[in-house]
Design brief:
- The complex is a heterodimer of chains A (98) and B (134).
- With 98 residues, chain A is α+β, with helices and mostly antiparallel strands.
- Chain A contains three helices and four strands.
- Chain B is mainly alpha-helical and 134 residues long.
- Helix content of chain B is 54%, strand content 9%.
- Chain B has three helices and three strands.
- In chain B, a hairpin with a 4-residue loop joins strand 1 and strand 2.
- In chain B, helix 1 runs antiparallel to helix 2, helix 1 runs parallel beside helix 3 and helix 2 packs antiparallel against helix 3.
- Chain B is elongated.
- Chain B starts with a helix and ends in a 5-residue tail after the last strand.
- The chains are: A alpha+beta (98), B mainly alpha (134).
Chain lengths: 98, 134
């Protein structure tokens, strides 16, 4: 299964940061928030983007999609200091893909 | 007697800064591990405790260096609970939901290569939106 991440960093910033996760994922740069907006995931709450960076940020969201691109499951954080942990995502994978 | 009270205040100032420093250190360690808990009551309590001890230092009367420590503790102790308070967020009403089909999209990946969502067709995939590495 393919894993794709989306954030508002530039490709260079993503390359520098990726060692933090050790993720085997395609990590996409969405500096202009085009992908974030296509999904409607731009944060509408109070907050700002990083200094000198994107004007806003996506709400941290995990989406599991099937082969037809339909959303089977999603997990969204109401708080940007929190993301779905690996155990939450793994449980969803097991439930929806077995 | 007056010197005695100042000693208490100065000690309180440093205690306040120590509580603030340890809490900040734990906070950043958990942030780095992407492991900040949903319920941040404990963090907020310790930050407010640091701020309260800082105020206590000034009330008791402190020497100047104790005052600097206390002031730092008050700033740190109130700033972090403030960031917790504004960290709630929401998506637009038309945001994607379970059952929806994802929109077609393309973007550059970390190597500057174009990724197109149509390459995901035919097998399940996990898409994660996150706030980036800053």
């Amino acid at each position: 299964m393919q894993i794709v991440t989306v954030c508002a960093d530039t490709p260079e910033e993503i390359r520098e940061g990726r060692g933090k996760h050790g993720l085997k994922a395609r990590m996409l740069s969405d500096r202009d928030l085009a992908v974030t907006d296509a999904f409607g995931l731009r944060n509408q709450g109070i907050h700002s983007g990083p200094p000198g960076g994107a004007e806003a940020l996506p709400v941290p969201t995990s989406l599991l999609i099937d082969g037809d691109g339909k959303v089977l499951w999603m997990d969204q954080s109401e708080n940007y200091q929190r993301r779905s942990g690996p155990e939450v995502v793994l449980a969803a994978l097991q439930k929806h893909l077995d | 007697m007056k010197t005695g009270t100042k000693k208490v205040g100065t000690t309180l100032g440093f205690l306040a800064l120590a509580v603030a420093a340890v809490t900040v250190a734990l906070w950043f360690r958990q942030i780095d591990q992407v492991d900040i808990p949903e319920d941040k009551t404990a963090y907020v309590s310790f930050f407010l405790l640091a701020a309260a001890l800082g105020v206590g230092a000034f009330v008791a009367g402190t020497r100047w260096f104790g005052g600097v420590a206390a002031a730092l503790a008050i700033i740190i102790g109130s700033f972090f609970p403030f960031t917790v308070a504004i960290s709630r967020q929401e998506v637009a009403a038309d945001a994607i939901r379970v059952g929806d089909a994802i929109p077609a999209f393309s973007a550059l990946d970390e190597n500057g290569e174009l990724f197109e969502s149509k390459t995901l067709a035919g097998k399940p995939a996990l898409i994660k939106f996150f706030r980036g590495h800053w």
